[in-house]
Structure formats: C-alpha cells, structure tokens
C-alpha cells in the first residue's frame, strides 16, 4: 500500500513543493523542527523486531504492504477491507507533532495521513461503542522477536476512548517526511496520538474494532502500575522508576550531553485535548 502515499501524496506533495512536509506547524505550543528521517528510522521502538532501538531498521521493507488489508468489527461496515478502500477517499492531512516516549525522550515527526475521525465516520460504529481497539500485524516468520520477547503478549494491542479517537489531532499515518512509512515506523499505517506517550501509537494496524468495554492493551497487561490506559503525557505523574518532568530531545546536538526540555502537560496539546479529561483525577487515570 505504499501506493497510497506514493500515488496520492508524494507526487502531489512534490508538485506543491516539498516544503509542505517540513514547514513547522502552529499546532501545539512551539515551532517544531523535524527530526531527520534516517534518525527516526534508526532509533525506533518496535519490539516485534527486537528490543534495541537500532533493531527495527535492520528490517527496512520487511513488511510487505501491497494489498494491505484491515479487518473491521463493531460497525455497520464490518468486514475485510483494503487499506486503499478505507483511506483513499478521505482528506489527506499533514501534521508535524512532537512524539514523547514514556522513556523520557522526544522527537518531532512530520506526518502524512488521515484523521481517524474521518475513517470512524465512514465506518459508522455501533452507537453503543465507547472505545476503539487496534491490533498490530503479527508474523513470527518476519518478526524475529515476535515469538521470543516472552513477557509481551502478541499481537500488540492498543485502544482509545472513542472521543479521543475522534479528536482532530488523532491520525492514522501512512507517511512521514514526505515518504511512505517503512517497516521500523509501522508501515503501512500506524496510529498517532500526540498528547499521549508514544506506546499508544500502534504500528502496522490490521484490525480495527469498536467496543463497549475498554480494551486490554499490551502495555497495561505487561505493567499495570507503570503503563495506564490513558497514558496522557503528564510531567507531574512520574513513572514508578523515573521522573516524567523533562525529556531528551533527539537527536542530541552533542555527543556527550543530551539536549533536554521540560515536558509539557498533554505534550503541549492541552488547548486541543484537556477538555476531554475535565474533572478526572489524572494521577488515578494515568
Ligand atoms: N506494534 C508496535 N507498535 C508500537 C511499538 C511496538 O513495540 N510495537 N512501540 C511503541 C512505542 S513504545 C513508541 S515510543 C512508538 C515509537 O514510534 P517510532 O519507533 O516510529 O518512533 O511506537 C509505538 N508503537
Ligand atoms: Mo515508547
């Protein structure tokens, strides 16, 4: 499906001037400069391909994306769809967001994709559904760690409350830096939820379900005291083993010292998202 991005976007993007993908966007708190693509690919969290940041980049192109299919459940459009048929009639968006990993580092990524809200409207979920559950591709033939990284249940599962999924900031990304995503970053399609820790951004999605109950997500099962369902970026709620008050900004300009910034509430996207959590105890619902 790299086609979706190559055909629809890449050429159009080029016609409009490649700058389109690199212009800092005003969304969020500050002007953002994109982390270079090779760094973004070379420092990736994708445990099915290995636990070191450099492991996923050894598998560039490993996930075959042609004719990619996604199964949908819990909506009037239940069934097996091609990614092309799901996304190609939806408006394409370009958004440059900061991505804040729960491990206290961040990068800036110029995404291309669609708003998840637009896909949800098209799928027409069960009116009683309150959540969306997303599941990653899983194939132990191409993913060396898929069967080995014992503690982590496969396939990788993530979820959002439906109002979070329909927030204007929430994307299904098919590209970054003006190119289709490659294997390390979750080709052909991954979730982007910029006010939440990076682990919510599930890669290589093959299943979309609308549910009435909150889904059990991979990281909650792995460490319920460390990784909550909400996972909203919050400098005031520490991870049990480290502070979340500041973050390393990657790549560092110096070999010897890390560049740092103070972590912002909701990763700087509070104006767009804080209203969804009014009255909630964010220490309890972390
Ligand atoms: N399927 C899957 N999705 C995943 C992960 C993973 O291990 N497997 N890692 C998550 C984590 S912890 C982060 S920080 C982001 C990292 O995205 P990037 O590697 O494209 O920067 O992907 C998330 N999505
Ligand atoms: Mo992460």
What does this protein structure show overall?
With 286 residues, this protein is α+β, with helices and mostly antiparallel strands. Helices cover 16% and strands 23% of the residues. The chain is built from seven helices and twelve strands. The strands form two sheets. Strands 3, 4, 7, 8, 9, 11 and 12 form a seven-stranded mixed beta sheet that branches. A five-stranded mixed beta sheet has the order 2-1-10-5-6. Strand 1 (69-73) and strand 2 (79-82) form a beta hairpin. Mean pLDDT is 90; it is low at 6-26. The site of ligand MTE has 15 residues, from loops.
List the helices and strands and how they pair.
Blueprint: H1 2-15, H2 37-42, E1 69-73, E2 79-82, H3 83-87, E3 93-101, E4 105-115, H4 116-123, E5 131-136, E6 157-161, H5 162-165, E7 171-176, E8 179-180, E9 190-192, E10 205-211, H6 218-222, E11 246-249, E12 260-262, H7 270-273
Parallel strand pairs: 1-10, 4-11
Antiparallel strand pairs: 1-2, 3-4, 4-7, 5-6, 5-10, 7-8, 7-9, 11-12
Bound molecules: ligand MTE and molybdenum atom.
């Amino acid at each position: 499906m790299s086609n979706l991005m190559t055909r629809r976007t890449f050429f159009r993007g080029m016609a409009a001037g490649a700058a389109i993908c690199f212009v800092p966007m005003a969304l969020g708190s500050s002007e953002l400069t994109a982390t270079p693509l090779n760094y973004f690919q070379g420092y990736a969290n994708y445990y099915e391909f290995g636990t070191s940041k450099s492991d996923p980049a050894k598998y560039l192109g490993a996930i075959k994306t042609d004719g990619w299919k996604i199964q949908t459940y819990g909506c009037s459009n239940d069934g097996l769809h091609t990614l092309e048929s799901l996304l190609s009639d939806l408006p394409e968006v370009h958004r440059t967001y900061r991505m804040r990993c729960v491990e206290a580092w961040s990068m800036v990524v110029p995404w291309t994709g669609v708003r998840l809200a637009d896909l949800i409207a098209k799928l027409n979920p069960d009116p009683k559904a309150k959540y969306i559950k997303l599941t990653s591709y899983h194939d132990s033939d191409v993913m060396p760690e898929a069967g080995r990284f014992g503690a982590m249940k496969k396939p990788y599962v993530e979820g959002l409350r439906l109002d979070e999924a329909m927030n204007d900031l929430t994307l299904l990304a098919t590209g970054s830096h003006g190119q289709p995503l490659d294997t390390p970053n979750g080709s052909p399609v991954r979730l982007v939820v910029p006010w939440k820790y990076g682990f919510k951004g599930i890669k290589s999605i093959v299943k979309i379900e609308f549910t009435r109950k909150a889904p059990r997500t991979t990281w909650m099962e792995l460490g319920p005291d460390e990784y909550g369902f909400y996972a909203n970026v919050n400098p005031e709620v520490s991870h049990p083993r480290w502070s979340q008050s500041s973050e390393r900004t990657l790549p560092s300009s110096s070999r010897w010292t890390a560049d740092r910034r103070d972590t912002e509430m909701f990763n700087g996207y509070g104006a767009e998202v804080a209203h969804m959590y009014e009255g909630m105890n964010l220490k309890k619902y972390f």
